[in-house]
Amino acid sequence: MYNQMNYYKIPREEWREFYQDHISPLSAEELSRIKSVNDRISLQDVQDVYVPLVHLLGLYLRSRQDLLNKQADFLGIRAHKVPFILGIAGSVAVGKSTIARLLQTMLSGIYPDKKVQLITTDGFLFPNKELKRRHLMKRKGFPESYDMRRLLLFTNDVKNGLLAKAPVYSHKVYDIIPGKFEVVDNPDILIVEGINVLQLPSNQQLYVSDFFDFSIYVDAQESLIKKWYLERFGMLLDTAFQDPTNYYYPYAIGDRASAFRMAKRVWRSINLPNLHEYIVPTRNRADLIVHKTKNHLVNELFLRKY
Ligand SMILES: Nc1ncnc2c1ncn2[C@@H]1O[C@H](COP(=O)(O)OP(=O)(O)O)[C@@H](O)[C@H]1O
Ligand SMILES: CC(C)(COP(=O)(O)O)[C@@H](O)C(=O)NCCC(=O)O
């Protein structure tokens, strides 16, 4: 399945033993902060999978800073802070943003003196108006629907310690919110989450992933991802019916079965082909592949060797 040669395959039972001696149990306050990210998240998974993961990230963080300090010594310049960028890739609805929020919460808890920010690459989709002009409304999420150049410049600014503004996409409005930005101001750690973060656009010399210090690909069986997509769609409908401005309002007040038929069509004609053609091919670029099974439980991890 994966390019096994270059990965350590680690079953959950083994992974959960890693680093445990160094880890103190999560406090009640930390657990409730974690629940606030997604109240369905399994706390057993948090303890067994994500706590060791956060400690692994700590190792990469420290060794990267160490190398930067030595490089500065070599160059005879003063070492300065460079944000550590963590990329999170995977299919639509596989759970990237949930993991990203969880890691942000946990990293902030473990390193209270560090500023941990999170952005999602949805914000770099072209606005609907531009997508319509380019006849790309049925290609949302495909590489050509993103302003990748802008994302690259944004990441470059972040790495150079400059204040950078990420546009904001709303699933509720199904469009970019004009004039709304996520301001990223010299964080210690920036998490960049999106289906496209490990892609290599053909017309660029540099890739967003060149700025990453660590990357994670979230993986699962296609049939499960489809199920999670449809469940999330159901939840969107449940909130949309109270709000006539919501993009999903007409579906929410209409016939539920036909709304789900529409969602299945979108999955089949947009998100699934995108997964096959452009997302899965990036999997072997990740430093870590987190594989989930039923109920989002992680069963296996693949850590890149070299
Ligand atoms: N670990 C988890 N436990 C329970 N539900 C989850 C978990 N991760 C994601 N989900 C649910 O799965 C759906 C997709 O997750 P989301 O984070 O929105 O995916 P993505 O950002 O990849 O599109 C959402 O309904 C979310 O609540
Ligand atoms: C905006 C997205 C590409 C982003 O993906 P996500 O953050 O949900 O992983 C996706 O949610 C999307 O809108 N896809 C287009 C078809 C659809 O699902 O409506």
UniProtKB/TrEMBL annotation:
Belongs to the prokaryotic pantothenate kinase family. Keywords: ATP-binding, Coenzyme A biosynthesis, Cytoplasm, Kinase, Nucleotide-binding, Transferase. Pathway: Cofactor biosynthesis; coenzyme A biosynthesis; CoA from (R)-pantothenate: step 1/5. Residues 85-232 form the Phosphoribulokinase/uridine kinase domain. This is Pantothenate kinase. Transmembrane segments: none annotated. It comes from Liquorilactobacillus sucicola DSM 21376 = JCM 15457. Pfam families: PRK. Its EC number is 2.7.1.33. It catalyses: (R)-pantothenate + ATP = (R)-4'-phosphopantothenate + ADP + H(+). It is found in: Cytoplasm. GO terms for biological process: coenzyme A biosynthetic process. GO terms for molecular function: ATP binding; pantothenate kinase activity.
